[in-house]
Amino acid sequence: MKLAGRVAVVTGGAGGLGGAIALGAAEAGAHVAILDVKGVDEAVAHLRSLGFKAAGRVVDVRDGQAVKVAIEALSAELGPIDTLIAAAGGSLGTPRDLDDISEDDLDLVLDVNIKGTFHCARAVLPFMRQAGRGAIVTFSSIGGRSASPVTGVPYAAAKAGLLGLTRRLAKEVGGENIRVNAIAPGLFLTDRLQGMFDALPEADRREVLDSIPLGRMPNIQECVDPVLFLASDESSYITGVVLDVNGGRFMAG
Ligand SMILES: NC(=O)c1ccc[n+]([C@@H]2O[C@H](COP(=O)([O-])OP(=O)(O)OC[C@H]3O[C@@H](n4cnc5c(N)ncnc54)[C@H](O)[C@@H]3O)[C@@H](O)[C@H]2O)c1
């Protein structure tokens, strides 16, 4: 019960990794609030059916005012939010290859990943200050740490940019007992990504598989547990770092 007594917001909490993390946070003792553009009612109903205290709002994280209103309402409903797991993001169905990428694709990927994380972090900070503690986990990716063949330039830029956001924010709020860290998952084959991976050229699929020293694809729980580690007091003296969770496919120098 490493998150007992915590109130955790999981953005993208109706998605593949976010849904598993929301369940993991609830199992670890947190009250869980889900923000997503779709699937919120189903995700909240699922957690409640298992006996957990949960709530949610349909919100586009690109809309700073809507995020603020939702976070205020969820804090009133569940208690002051002290944990933010900002999983909303991804390449969001945009093309991988440069010539196929439109300006709208670029805006979408940068706005959801970077501005969305910024809006959510800023909206939860007053409640973390009220609680006297806080933990924020941002979502980078192996695609922001190295030149992964799976995703394109906008995603690489967004996920690398999130590392700057993470470090700078960690410096700004550290004195208030609020920690900010990034997770950088390798490829986790959620239902959505299985299709994307299957559609890659064989050479690119092989490049990914052959470059994993642990020699296997991960299961989803192997992302959930490191996220809960960063969200909990188990990482109480860790802030401003990025945790690579990729089977060794990218090793930081
Ligand atoms: N699955 C992987 O292999 C992998 C690897 C590295 C990083 N990541 C990152 O992990 C996070 C979760 O990825 P996933 O694989 O679970 O993807 P997913 O598509 O299953 O989940 C993303 C969720 O975000 C929601 N979302 C999208 N745009 C939104 C918006 N504007 N406002 C609010 N919610 C929005 C979607 O509805 C979805 O439920 C993403 O940030 C992704 O980039 C995933």
Automatic annotation (TrEMBL):
GO terms for molecular function: oxidoreductase activity, acting on the CH-OH group of donors, NAD or NADP as acceptor. The lineage of its organism: unclassified sequences, metagenomes, ecological metagenomes. GO terms for biological process: fatty acid elongation. It comes from freshwater metagenome. Belongs to the short-chain dehydrogenases/reductases (SDR) family. This is Unannotated protein.
